[in-house]
Design a protein that fits this description.
Blueprint: E1 7-8, H1 10-16, E2 21-24, H2 36-42, E3 49-50, H3 70-79, E4 88-91, H4 99-108, E5 114-117, H5 120-126, E6 152-153, H6 155-164, E7 168-171, H7 175-179, E8 198-199, H8 215-221, E9 231-234, H9 241-250, E10 256-259, H10 262-266
Parallel strand pairs: 1-5, 2-3, 2-4, 4-5, 6-10, 7-8, 7-9, 9-10
Helix pairs in contact: 4-9
Length: 278
Amino acid sequence: MTQTGNLVSTDWLAAHLDRVRGLDANWYMPDDPRDPQAEFRAAHIPGAVFFDIDAIADPDTDLPHMLPSAAQFGEQLGTLGIGTGDTVVVYDNSGLFSAPRAWWMLKAMGHDQVFVLDGGFPKWRREGRAIESGAAAPTPHAFTATPRPGIVRDFAAMLETVASRTAQLVDARSAGRFTGAEAEPRAGVRGGHMPGAVNLPWRSVVTADGTLKSPADLRAVFAALDLDAPIVTTCGSGISAAILMLGLHEIGARHVALYDGSWTEWGARPEAPVVQGS
């Protein structure tokens, strides 16, 4: 069952479904009324469990779905039936939106055997593949988390990075939010972007059918970046930044980190410098 890269196809997952652990990492923006857990209970890939991005998170901060401690993460993953040696496939109901966040979280906790289902649950359903419904009842396993701080950035590190210009900053938000022309969805957060950041909205790396673009197309999207130099991805709250990270990994970039607090933290901190306009 050897698998390389960070993506798996629906064909691959169907052929290995009994040997992997599926994580439904569906999540929606705060202003979207849909209920990810209800959708999971209604229909999901056989054997999958629900990975709650908002619950597998640091409880001691007001920032949304921040990476939790290693101990908490290991306990919660183990409760979901995920073991340290398991091969994990994450997916979502949008095709390719929130699943990369769960992929990054597992990577940040030292779990390398994790892959994203290209096209997600929508592609799986379009192809008429098996689904099941109801709540999951996994058997608990032991999951040992070993943090990998090199792919995570916090506020202090970002202040230093912005001041020293030691990494390329890539913002996955929409152009309107990046320039400040469009209001932020969270109260108390300024519009604009970090000094030196470039704007690459996450939709620019995803096709209309919810799959990741081809390597050639991804290279064109990221043409302005030096793939051999450090890159930090950011967005509104650390969700879509992981989509850019996934795309960068697929074309060979390896010095990539994600700013966990992203704009929700940066835009609300008065000491953080903000640029408005393009």
